Task: inverse folding
């Protein structure tokens, strides 16, 4: 029986300074699987089974599950290409919390599309598949942005081009940085976190945003970690979104006075991240966030690297 499984990692959207255009994949250094998995198996009729620690938080009706929607979207695209759509049984192992800011929906979407595409012998190229992933992410969050699906699928740190091809470019990463990610345990809806943002940006803010992003990209190419960290501030979303995140200011203050080079909201939150170039400091900050930023039993912290590899499929 034909079978393909795909794992797709968690990701940080925005990375503070690149609202909607910059994202990074995450890989815990202790080997924890921080990402969703989708299994595609040959079957007589379509079905979706959900399992994993956050499966109980998904909608009860499988027809409304994003993975089912990916399947139908994928089959429609196949049929448009004159390729027969496969009948399959899907399993979603939901390891990422929903509304966490860790690119949870993107992880399910990427794992589903990647597994389905490998199952049909990679009918679609990377840009076409990425465009489909962006469309599905847009259905969930209310607007199409690639800053989670792209790093989740492609790995590394990705910058969106705004063009149909290539959809993204990969940026160099600072190899000795550790990324502490702490999920507080509460859920923040991305569409709600977008609705609280002003619809226009003042010119001085736009100039700061452009300068920071330009300097950051230059610094990464130059391998200048100090310069890169110096521009990692969010002038677009954090001033408004932090009101949704209890304990955010204290978490930032602790992290920045205990060795973090930068601190910010992962995607639309509530996960926060701290960047460190020292493993012990990263672990100490993770421990403090565990004790002080987490609100309930669903919360967790991980010290991560940015992996070069994104989604991985096995058959
Ligand atoms: N760039 C998106 C936002 C990421 O900040 O709304 C959502 O995870």
Result:
């Amino acid at each position: 029986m034909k079978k393909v499984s795909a794992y797709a990692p968690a990701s940080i959207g925005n990375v503070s300074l690149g609202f909607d255009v910059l994202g990074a994949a995450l890989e815990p250094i202790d080997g924890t699987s921080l990402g969703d998995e989708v299994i595609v198996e040959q079957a007589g009729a379509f079905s979706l089974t959900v399992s994993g620690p956050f499966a109980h938080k998904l909608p009860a009706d499988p027809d409304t599950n994003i993975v089912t929607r990916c399947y139908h979207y994928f089959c429609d695209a196949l049929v448009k290409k004159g390729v027969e759509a496969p009948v399959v049984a899907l399993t979603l192992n939901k390891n990422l919390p929903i509304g966490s800011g860790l690119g949870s929906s993107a992880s399910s979407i990427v794992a589903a599309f990647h597994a389905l595409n490998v199952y049909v012998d990679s009918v679609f190229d990377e840009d076409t598949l990425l465009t489909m992933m962006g469309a599905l992410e847009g259905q969930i969050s209310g607007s199409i942005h690639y800053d989670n699906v792209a790093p989740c699928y492609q790995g590394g740190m990705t910058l969106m081009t705004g063009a149909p091809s290539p959809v993204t470019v990969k940026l160099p990463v600072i190899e000795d940085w550790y990324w502490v990610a702490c999920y507080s345990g509460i859920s923040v809806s991305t569409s709600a976190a977008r609705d609280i943002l002003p619809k226009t940006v003042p010119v001085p803010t736009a100039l700061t945003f452009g300068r920071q992003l330009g300097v950051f990209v230059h610094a990464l190419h130059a391998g200048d970690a100090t310069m890169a960290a110096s521009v990692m501030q969010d002038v677009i979303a954090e001033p408004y979104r932090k009101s949704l995140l209890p304990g955010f200011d204290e978490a930032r203050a602790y992290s920045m006075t205990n060795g973090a080079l930068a601190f910010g909201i992962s995607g639309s939150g509530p996960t926060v991240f701290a960047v460190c170039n020292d493993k012990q400091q990263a672990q100490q900050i993770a421990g403090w966030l565990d004790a002080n930023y987490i609100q309930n039993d669903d919360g967790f912290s991980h010290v991560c690297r940015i992996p070069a590899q994104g989604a991985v499929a096995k058959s």
